């Protein structure tokens, strides 16, 4: 029994975390380090302890995600340079930030073991669909560009390369259209939603659902707007859902008051 536990400990903690390729991430909840053959997580907030395994599994995917980000970056830059000949465009690069994370993968033979202040974890990451993962990274990167890029011309140029990548994959097509809705003038948003037949179940990102819901809300289509956030659990979705519920109650009350007035006449 002791030998078995020793072998488990050696296998899980055997990764070398003193290499140049070490990936380190830190939040208010965890400090994470990952290498090709393992990862470790340090708990920084006791309230996050139930999420240790989730953090470990995410950490194990970091090297693979980093490789796929490099591939996406190369493809985006090649596309940009092929379609734009001037020097300014050729110097533009796509630096996908650490905050952009997505992978469609499974982790086989997962193990974790606590030693000192670290939780060590190991497992075999198997990418289920590289094309779907690249598209998923692309749409998340597109939203990051929208939210962080300050130069309007650079933003447009980057989105011109990133958005088609997401639009052309069925798993991210509708989320990419929702970003176009977000960037469109308010009087054009409803037309885009109708033209591309955006439906709640086809949107994966909470941000996408929020955008479409807000656009419908701006056109006073309360019930349709509610459908897009009904199953969305992000903080912004919950706030929007509450706002729509209040407007629906007011609308129902107004209808009831109008009927009451009608029958009193």
Strand fraction band? 5-15%
Mean pLDDT over the residues: 89
Let me know the largest β-sheet: 5 strands, antiparallel
Helix-strand sequence: HEEEHHEEHHHHHHH
Main features:
disordered N terminus, 5 strands, about 260 residues, five-stranded antiparallel beta sheet, about 60% helix, alpha+beta, single chain
Structural summary, described in words:
It is built from ten helices and five strands, in the order αβββααββααααααα. The longest helix is centred in the N-terminal third of the chain and has 32 residues, at 52-83. A five-stranded antiparallel β-sheet has the order 1-2-3-5-4, with helices on both faces. It is α+β, with helices and mostly antiparallel strands. It is 59% helix and 14% strand. The chain has helices spanning 2-13, 52-83, 87-91, 130-148, 152-167, 173-183, 186-195, 206-218, 222-229, 235-264; strands spanning 23-26, 30-35, 38-43, 105-115, 118-127.
List the helices and strands and how they pair.
Blueprint: H1 2-13, E1 23-26, E2 30-35, E3 38-43, H2 52-83, H3 87-91, E4 105-115, E5 118-127, H4 130-148, H5 152-167, H6 173-183, H7 186-195, H8 206-218, H9 222-229, H10 235-264
Antiparallel strand pairs: 1-2, 2-3, 3-5, 4-5
Helix pairs in contact: 2-4, 2-5, 4-5, 5-6, 6-7, 6-8, 7-8, 8-9, 8-10, 9-10
Write a brief caption for the model:
The protein has 265 residues and is of the alpha+beta class.
């Amino acid at each position: 029994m002791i030998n078995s536990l020793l072998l488990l400990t050696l296998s899980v903690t055997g990764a070398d975390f003193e290499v140049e390729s070490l990936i380190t991430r830190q939040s208010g909840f965890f400090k994470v380090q990952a290498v090709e053959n393992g990862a470790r997580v340090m708990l920084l907030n006791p309230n996050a302890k139930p999420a240790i395994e989730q953090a470990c599994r995410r950490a194990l995917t970091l090297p693979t995600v980093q490789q796929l980000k490099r591939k996406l970056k190369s493809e985006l830059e090649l596309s940009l340079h092929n379609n734009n000949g001037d020097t300014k465009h050729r110097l533009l690069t796509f630096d996908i930030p650490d905050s952009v994370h997505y992978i469609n993968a499974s982790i086989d033979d997962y193990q974790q073991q606590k030693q000192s202040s670290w939780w060590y974890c190991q497992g075999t990451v198997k990418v289920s669909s590289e094309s779907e993962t690249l598209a998923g990274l692309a749409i998340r990167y597109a939203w990051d560009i929208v939210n962080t890029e300050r130069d309007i011309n650079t933003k447009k140029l980057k989105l011109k390369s990133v958005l088609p990548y997401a639009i052309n994959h069925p798993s991210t097509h509708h989320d990419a259209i929702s970003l176009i809705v977000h960037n469109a003038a308010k009087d054009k948003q409803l037309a885009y939603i109708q033209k591309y037949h955006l439906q709640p179940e086809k949107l994966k990102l909470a941000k996408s659902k929020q955008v479409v819901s807000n656009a419908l809300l701006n056109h006073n289509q309360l019930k349709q707007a509610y459908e897009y956030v009904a199953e969305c659990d992000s903080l912004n979705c919950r706030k929007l859902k509450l706002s729509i519920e209040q407007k629906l109650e007011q609308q129902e009350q107004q209808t009831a008051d109008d009927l009451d007035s009608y029958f009193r006449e």
